[in-house]
Structure formats: structure tokens, C-alpha cells
Amino acid sequence: MALIFYTNPTSRGRMVRWALEEIGQPYETKIIPYGPEMKSPDYLAINPMGKVPALTHDHTVITETAAIIAYLADAFPEADLAPTPGTRERGPYYRWLFFAAGPFEAAVMDKALGLHIPPARKASIGYGSLEEVLDTLEAALTPGPYLLGDSFSAADIYVGSQLGHCMRFGAIPPRPAFETYVHHLQARPAALRATALDDATTI
Q1: Do 76 and 118 lie in a common domain?
Q2: Burial of 89 by CB count in 10 Å (0-12 exposed, 13-18 middle, 19+ buried)?
Q3: Are 154 and 98 in contact (CB under 8 A)?
Q4: Are 22 and 190 within 8 A, CB to CB?
Q5: 107 and 178 part of one domain
Q6: Does residue 75 sit in the same domain as residue 105?
Q7: Cβ atoms 21, 193 nearer than 8 A
Q8: Which distant-in-sequence residues (6+ apart) come within 8 Å of 163 by Cβ?
Q9: What's the pLDDT at 35?
Q10: Domain tally for the chain?
Q11: Does 65 share its domain with 95?
Q12: pLDDT for residue 153
């Protein structure tokens, strides 16, 4: 069952690399440089959006970072990265994956782009405000150490990566709960391996 990982070490592919290292299955990496190659017919046949990351698993193509991470967790249940379908924990698992892919990313990007939401239109925006988004995540992480309590999951890979990246580049203010959470995650052996592989990659 061949896994082929299309990425660039300066992209969200770093999150997927971590997930791949967590599942412990062999995979082939194809580095796609930004520019013409990412928009080439061959790569557009994989991802018509012409962006990375992307993953192929035999004849299945998966794009979008959160979707790839969730797919890997389900495709390789022996890695124990997702609660069993139908269990009580499955709901919060989905909740935080989609929260990070939706409200969190939208709120952060709107701030980064200098978009101002008029107070009268706040109710029309799915995330309300960046402060509300961060408060919600902080409350979810306060029991710790993971989003699902004592159980590490693929949701932590995605949410933790987002928080770490945003704090590193000043997109969100550091909060003690976020720093503790991210520091704990970054010490995982799979996270360390993934970081080393991407940092050593030349384009």
C-alpha cells in the first residue's frame, strides 16, 4: 500500500510529515518547488489547486492538511491516532480538527491580512473574533495534556502545529497554556524526526 507524500519543507506539509512519522509506515517523499513545477500538468493532476501538501495512497488522492492527517489516522488505526468511530471521544476529536481548520485559521488569516470586521457584522462571521477563538482553545487545553485529555491524537498534530507556527511568527500572542502544550508536543520522537527531515531538505 504505497504512500507518496508531496510537500515543500516551508509549507503546511510539515504537519503531514509529523503525522506520517507518527504512523510509522514507509512513505515516499516528493519535494515540489514553488513556481512552475507546482503548477505543472503532472502535479495539477494530483492537486488541481496547485499547492502542497498532497498524499496518494495507492489510487486514493487526499489534499488539504487536516484531511490528510485525519485520513492517515483512520487508514492506520494501529498507530492509535484517532478514537474509535462511535465512541464518545470521536466527537471532540472531530470538533477540534474542524475548529482549527475553520474558525482558527480564518481568524488568524483575517488578522494577518488586516481585515477588520465591523462590530455590527460580528455575528455573521463564523469565528466571532480572534480573541474568542483563542479563549476557546485555551479552555479546551486547560485540563491537558492533550485535547482529548490523556490521549494524544491526530487532532493534537494539527492544532499543535497551527499554534506553534502562529506563535513563532507572531500571528497570535503566546499564552502559557499554548506554550506548555506545544512544547510538550514538540518533544515527541515522531515530531523531532519530522522536524529534522524537513530542516535537512534542500530545494
Answers
A1: no
A2: middle
A3: no
A4: yes
A5: yes
A6: no
A7: yes
A8: 137, 172, 178, 181, 182
A9: 96
A10: 2
A11: no
A12: 98
- Residue-level pLDDT at 113: 93
159 with 132, same domain: the answer is: yes
Cell numbers found for residue 123: 455575528
- Total Cβ atoms within 10 A of residue 57: 19
Both 25 and 54 in one domain: the answer is yes
Are 71 and 59 found together in one domain?
Answer: yes
CATH number for position 9: 3.40.30.10
| pLDDT per residue of the chain (203 residues) written in tens, 0 to 9 | 699 999 999 999 999 999 999 999 999 999 999 999 999 999 999 999 999 999 999 999 999 999 999 999 999 999 999 999 999 999 999 999 999 999 999 999 999 999 888 888 888 888 999 999 999 999 999 988 999 999 999 999 999 999 999 999 999 999 999 999 999 999 999 999 999 999 998 87
pTM exceeds cut of 0.85: yes
Query: What does the alpha-carbon distance between residue 152 and residue 164 come to, in Å, rounded to a whole number?
Result: 16
Sheet of 60-63, strands arranged across: 28-31, 3-7, 54-57, 60-63
User: Does residue 59 sit in helix, strand or coil?
Assistant: coil
Q: Give the domain extent around 117.
A: 90-188
Residue 151 belongs to domain with CATH number = 1.20.1050.10
